[in-house]
Structure formats: C-alpha cells, structure tokens
Design goal:
4-stranded antiparallel beta sheet, 8-stranded mixed barrel, L,D-transpeptidase catalytic domain-like, 2 domains
Length: about 220
C-alpha cells in the first residue's frame, strides 16, 4: 500500500512539473490595451501565439516557429481557412527534400498541415496544425507558425467572437505583446503607403510597420 501511495504521489508531482514547464493551451493572460479583438500576435522568441479576446485578455497557445534564418517579423492577414488541406511543398522545401511528392493529400499522416490551416497574406506562410506534435515549442519550420492540432482547431472554429476570422490581423514579433497603438491603412510592412521610397520612414517598435512621417501622412 505504501509503495502504491509513493508511486501515485510521484506521478502527481511529475504531472505538476510537466505543466509548470509548458502552460496548457488556452491559458489566460492579463488584458493588453491597443489591440483589436480577434488579433493574433506571435512572439517568436517565446514560441507563443496570443489571441486577443473582446475584453482585451489574451489566450495563449504554444507554437513552433521558423528555424534559424527563417524566422520573420511583421504584419500579415488571414487570407484563407482550410480544414485538413492538401499540401504542395514550396520550392524552398523541395530543394531541401527533393523526394517529397508534388501533393500530399489532406488528412495524411505525412501532411505537415495537420487538422487545419489558415493561410497568410505574406509569402507562402500559414498558421497550421502538425503531424509532429513533439516539434511544438521549437524553432522548427520554414517560417510557418505550427500549432498542436487541437489548438489550431480551437483558433479556427472556436465559439462566436472567439475564432480567428478571415482578414484578421497577424502580428509576428520577437518581443512580448505590450500596449499597442492601432495603425490606420497608411502603415505598411517595410514601406510607405505609396509603395515608393521614403526619406523619413518611421517604424513602430511594436509591430514593425513603417510610415512616412510621425503624423502618419502618406506621399502625395
């Protein structure tokens, strides 16, 4: 009996230790001002994704992010949403892994998109599930944001007002979310609204957007 009790206590202690290392998905963090509800923020240095709720609170998910040299920062938008999508390896992946087929069907154990994917307006990046759960929490991808399958489904199709909608803003940065001043349409990633060179670009330290002047005026 004593041996069994000791084993049970050891198991419980181990479980508590595991939870303390990797907080569970949907962990709530204090409210942060300045972000629109529905905004998704990715902190690459911590391998965490934050989803902004109506009250400003953040739901936190563990994620995998880009490998060394393939991590990016900036602002994008959700351009498409797909359940168990088929996957065609991008050219960069195919160069490194030439044996990959042209298309891997959705739902296949070889498909890295996992249970769902939300494509982004930047390059060929996406927020998606995984066929390798052990990779979550590491620098593992070619730039995509990788989530546990249950987490990406929660982000994809959670209750009304909670899911990441098409067109939602995605802010990828290396630092943690802080007070953020919402930008208008004349802020663009790395360039001014006119898409011409700018003599006095001003960068927002929070989201890496640029504007032509401190008053956010565009070229005329």
């Amino acid at each position: 009996m004593r041996t069994a009790l000791r084993s049970l206590l050891a198991l419980l202690a181990f479980g508590a230790f595991v939870v303390s290392i990797d907080p569970p998905a949907q962990a709530r963090t204090p409210a942060v001002a300045g972000y629109e509800p529905g905004t998704v923020i990715v902190k690459t240095s911590a391998r965490r994704l934050y989803f902004v709720l109506e009250n400003g609170e953040l739901i936190t998910y563990p994620v995998g992010v880009g490998k060394t040299g393939r991590t990016w920062t900036g602002v994008a938008y959700i351009s498409g949403k797909f359940i168990k999508p088929a996957w065609s390896p991008p050219a960069e992946v195919r160069r490194d892994k030439p044996s990959l087929p042209d298309v891997i069907p959705g739902g296949s154990s070889e498909n890295p998109m996992g249970a769902a994917a939300m494509t982004l307006s930047v390059d060929q990046y996406a927020i998606h599930g995984t066929n390798r759960p052990v990779s979550i929490g590491g620098f593992v991808s070619y730039g995509c944001i990788r989530m546990n399958n249950q987490d990406v489904l929660d982000l994809y199709q959670a209750g009304e007002g909670r899911h990441a909608r098409r067109g939602a803003e995605i802010i990828v940065r290396s630092a943690a979310p802080s007070r953020h001043r919402s930008h208008k349409a004349n802020w663009y990633p790395g360039r001014c609204a006119s898409r011409r060179s700018c003599a006095r670009p001003v960068e927002c330290a929070t989201c890496a957007l640029f504007c032509c002047a401190r008053r956010r005026r565009t070229h005329r």
